[in-house]
Specification:
Number of helices: 11
Cofactor: a divalent metal cation
Largest sheet: 7 strands, antiparallel
CATH superfamily of the largest domain: eRF1 domain 2
Number of strands: 16
Low-confidence stretches: none
Mean pLDDT: 88
CATH architecture of the largest domain: 2-Layer Sandwich
CATH topology of the largest domain: Nucleotidyltransferase, domain 5
Order of helices and strands: EEHEEEEEHEEEHEHHEHHHEHEHEHE
Distance between the termini: 54 Å
Main location: cytoplasm
Family: Belongs to the eukaryotic release factor 1 family. Pelota subfamily.
Shape: flat
Keywords: Cell cycle, Cell division, Cytoplasm, Meiosis, Metal-binding, Mitosis
GO molecular function: metal ion binding
Structural class: alpha+beta
Length: about 375
């Protein structure tokens, strides 16, 4: 994300002018922009042309016009596969041909600047801006999770897992004494997956590419990738050989990716990426919870009690809590996060578009790992 300008007042209101540069930035903006924020940007709008008598009736012709509008945001629409984020709301300032209070849908895309106005820039919002505008390159990982006849090519970033391609091909079963048809079809499948991977993933930029499957299917794909690279004298791909990691998964579907990310070898390769640390932390939470030793809790009330006791080592939150339209709820979790930090604990915010964030959302989206056992946090204080 490129920061062009910013201005903040003493009462925490203010504005920033930004340019989104990739999908990761759009996801950050999805978490940053809230209802009742104002966004000012250039956008195309259909404008009715006046007739000879000056009227703009139903039969009047329309033309598209580039305007600069300021809208009060009511709806935000973004999915990881999109390269734009859509905002809908009412205009707040008069513009020629567009009265105040008119609904408009605008798009935030790559390379075009916009200005975001907030009445209250809290710590989470500042952190999102500072982090997304860092000059440090964002860690990214590619992955192919497959089994015979089906492959899923994914791009994993700090905040999301994006399915780039799903490939399906019919592979005939091996016949007794004759596996030629099976082997020929499987080889063509490997070739198709190899070519698609090279086309859809920027291998030179990625830190690692995971090939995971049940059995030896991933090994077969690895061999095919570099057989083709050798035949084509693809020096860039051959130089990236050390980035490829072959791993075992119980399935060739996306569920297998989460289990692969927990393995020691994968963790060594991905030790600098945030999402890998998130996976390990969530795994630690569930192991501690299953041990039932009073050192892991989930749920808003239980976690708030533990935080106010100063007992929290790790606070786990999903980003969906900070997208709440309830300003009081958002502020509550910001305050709880600050308490944890001030008492020596760590706060980790999980992406709800990652498998780890989805799992955390299934247990209320808020959880804690404690420094020492605390029992009966789930009992009401007035219970005897």
């Amino acid at each position: 994300m490129k920061l062009i300008n910013n201005h903040f007042e003493k009462d925490s209101s203010g504005s920033v002018t930004l340019v989104a540069e990739d999908k990761e930035d759009l996801f950050t903006l999805y978490n940053l922009i809230q209802r009742r924020d104002e966004v000012e940007l250039k956008t195309m709008r259909n404008i009715k042309k006046s007739g000879k008598d000056g009227s703009k009736g139903s039969k009047a012709k329309t033309e598209k016009k580039l305007l600069r509008l300021k809208i009060d945001v009511e709806e935000i629409d973004f999915t990881p596969q999109d390269e734009v984020m859509r905002l809908r709301g009412k205009t707040t300032e008069p513009v020629e041909d567009v009265p105040v209070g008119t609904y408009h849908t605008a798009e935030i895309d790559f390379k075009h600047p916009f200005t975001l106005y907030k009445d209250d820039w809290d710590e989470i919002a500042f952190e999102l801006i500072n982090k997304s505008c860092s000059i440090d390159e964002k860690a990214e990982v590619g992955a192919v999770v497959l089994q015979e006849g089906v492959a899923h090519i994914c791009l994993i970033t700090e905040n999301m897992t994006v399915l780039r391609q799903k490939i399906e091909r019919s592979i005939p079963r091996k016949k007794r004494g004759d596996s030629s048809a099976h082997d020929k079809s499987l080889d063509k499948f490997y070739e198709l997956v190899s070519n698609t991977l090279v086309r859809d993933l920027n291998i030179s930029k990625l830190k690692a590419i995971i090939l995971a499957s049940p059995g030896f299917t991933a090994n077969g794909l690895f061999d095919k990738i570099f057989h083709i690279a050798t035949l084509n004298n693809d020096k860039l791909l051959l130089q990236a050989r050390s980035k490829f990691i072959v791993a075992h998964s119980s399935t060739g579907f996306l569920q297998g990716l989460d289990e692969v990310l927990k393995t020691e070898e994968i963790q060594k390769q991905l030790s600098t990426t945030k999402f890998a640390k998130d996976v390990l932390l969530l795994d630690e939470f569930f192991k501690t919870l299953n041990a039932d030793d009073g050192k892991a809790w989930y749920g808003p009330k239980e976690c708030e009690k533990a935080i106010n006791m100063g007992a929290v080592k790790n606070l786990l939150l999903t980003d969906s809590l900070f997208r709440s339209d309830d300003i009081a709820e958002r502020k509550k979790y910001i305050e709880l996060s600050e308490i944890v930090k001030n008492t020596g604990g760590e706060v980790t915010i999980f992406s709800s578009l990652h498998e780890s964030g989805i799992q955390l959302d299934q247990v209320t989206g808020v959880a804690v790992i404690l420094n020492y056992p605390v029992y009966d946090l789930d009992e009401d204080e007035d219970e005897e």
